[in-house]
Each structure stands twice: as C-alpha cells, then as structure tokens.
Amino acid sequence: MVNGCTVTDKGDRFATLSWTVESGEWQALDDRVRADHLARRISEAGDLLDLGPLWSSYLGVGKKGLPADLLLKAVLYEMHGKRPSPAQWTKDARENEPVRWLLFGLEPSRTHWYDFRDRLAPFWDGWNASVLQEGMRCV
Questions:
Q1: Mind listing the pLDDT tens digit for each residue in 65-105?
Q2: Rounded Cα distance, 56 and 45, in Å
Q3: pTM for the full model?
Q4: Among 10, 43, 57, 132, which residue carries the largest CB count within 10 Å?
Q5: What residues form DSSP beta bridges with 17?
Q6: CB-based contacts of 15: which residues, under 8 Å, 6+ apart?
C-alpha cells in the first residue's frame, strides 16, 4: 500500500503527487528544513543525474510507479546517513522530516522500497562514473 499519491490517467506510467510545492503540508516541512541542510543538497544533486534509463525501466503496465527521482533522492539521503535498509527507509518516510520533504509526503511500503532498491542496482555504476567525470571537469 502506498499512501500520499493518486493515480493519473492510464496513459501515464507514474503516479502523481498529492503534495506539491504549493501544498501546506510540504511548505510546513520546507520551512523547517534548513537552507543548508543535506537533504536540499542531495535534491539539487539528484536533479543533475541522467535518470532516463531509470525512467525507461518502468514498463507502464500494472500499478503506477512512484516518481523514481524522489525515491532516489530519499535513498541517497538515507545511504549518506548510513541507513542502507529499506525497512529503515519505510519508517523514515513516515517519521523523518527531511525524508518526508524529499518524498513530498509519499509513504512507500517496505516492499516498494525493496523493489526500488533492486531496480536501482544496474544504474549505480553509470551514475557514479557521471559524478566522477563532472568532478574531474571542475578540477
């Protein structure tokens, strides 16, 4: 079960968010997440990754997928905090304000987090290489 999202029309592969940047719930969290908070830096860095292959890995059949970019940002935040377990991510999606901010209030189930972790496996090396290449250009 996934709380916090509604499904759009059948032509779309991904669920739409119940919260937006205009939502009172998200704005309240936004006010509490410091300007220099790690969650904000991870959100900005996540926007720089080429997620095309990840998006394409969703076939568009069955249940709507949750926005993979938001899930990835939450996973990156959790991994930085040495929280590698999808069980921990499930709890934090409900109780940790920076994670809730990154997820726009989504509360993926434990099963969804485990499935997403497995879906990410083929992409880590490419993203890592991309980040390293960008870092080398800045030197």
A1: 899 999 999 999 999 999 999 999 999 999 999 999 999 99
A2: 20
A3: 0.84
A4: 43
A5: 5
A6: 2, 5, 6, 7, 8, 64, 65, 66, 67
Going along the chain, which residue ranges are E strands?
Answer: 5-6, 16-17
Task: Summarize pLDDT for 44-60 with one digit per residue, the tens.
Answer: 988 988 888 898 888 76
Q: Write down the residue that tokens 């960008």 correspond to.
A: 134
Tell me the C-alpha distance between 116 and 80, whole Å: 17
d(C-alpha 132, C-alpha 12), whole Å: 33
Which class for 100: exposed (0-12), middle (13-18), buried (19 or more C-beta within 10 A)? buried
Using the 8-state DSSP alphabet, how is residue 107 labeled?
B
Average pLDDT taken over every residue of the chain: 86
pLDDT value for 102: 97
Integer Cα distance of 52 and 46 in angstroms: 13
Q: What residues form DSSP beta bridges with 6?
A: 16
